[in-house]
Amino acid sequence: MQTTPALGAFAAPATAAAHFRALLAHAADVSDVAAALARDGDPGFVLVDTRSEDAWTQGRVPGARHLPTAVLATGAHGLDPGVPVVVHCWGPGCNGAQRAALVLAEQGFRVKELMGGFEYWAREGLPYETGTAPAVTRRDPADRLTAPLAADDCGC
After folding, report:
1. What Å distances lie between residue 132 and 60, 120, 144, CA to CA?
2. What stretches of the chain adopt beta strand conformation (E)?
3. pTM listed for this prediction
4. I want to staple 84 with a disulfide (CB 3.0 to 4.6 A). Which of 45, 92, 96, 106 is the partner?
5. Residue 24: in which H helix or E strand, if any?
6. Which residues have a Cβ under 8 Å from the Cβ of 85 and sit 6 or more positions away?
7. How far is Cα 36 from Cα 156, in angstroms, rounded to an integer?
């Protein structure tokens, strides 16, 4: 194992590969989720917003289901156990989606966390809804520090 003074030890390549393979099995990228939702037909998962009612009203991903983490703890409320679930909360500084993912996994669901949450959905310039019925759809310009401005794809 190689070490550097500033970074400490580096894992062996096989250990690193196993770690990153596991991360990818449990996390979904905002751009990938948006592309799947934009395709005609079934995206192959249900997107679940785990935030509060106030947060949901403030802004939400079109087509997402609203099931706050506290509600999920009492049951999956109509989610099909055969359909994978992608959960999200506010953003990377919030672990609400991870708590919700744990609850759903313990209930037998296949689940991933949306990396960056609603924050990065909006920061990447993707459409979102606000308010109550009828909802208003908004789309803000992409944050130049979080999304490519001249392309739909960051190339990663």
Report:
1. 11, 22, 30
2. 3-4, 8-9, 27-28, 46-49, 65-66, 85-88, 111-114, 128-130, 136-138
3. 0.87
4. 45
5. helix 13-26
6. 45, 46, 47, 48, 79, 104, 109, 110, 111, 112
7. 17
CA distances from 86 to 39, 92, 145 (A): 16, 15, 25
Collapsed DSSP state (helix, strand, coil) of residue 28: strand
Length of the chain: 156
pLDDT tens string 19-57: 999 999 999 999 999 999 999 889 999 999 999 999 999
Cβ-contact 50, 90 below 8 angstroms: no
- Residue 127 buriedness (CB in 10 A; 0-12 / 13-18 / 19+): middle
Sequence-ordered list of residues with C-beta below 8 angstroms from that of 123, at least 6 positions apart, any chain = 116, 142, 143, 146, 147
CA dist 4 and 29 (Å) reads: 30
Q: How far apart are CA 11 and CA 52, in angstroms?
A: 39
Query: Strands 65-66 and 46-49, how do they pair?
Result: parallel
pLDDT tens track for 58-93: 999 999 999 998 888 887 688 999 999 999 999 999
What distance, in Å, lies between the first and last C-alpha atoms of the chain?
A: 28
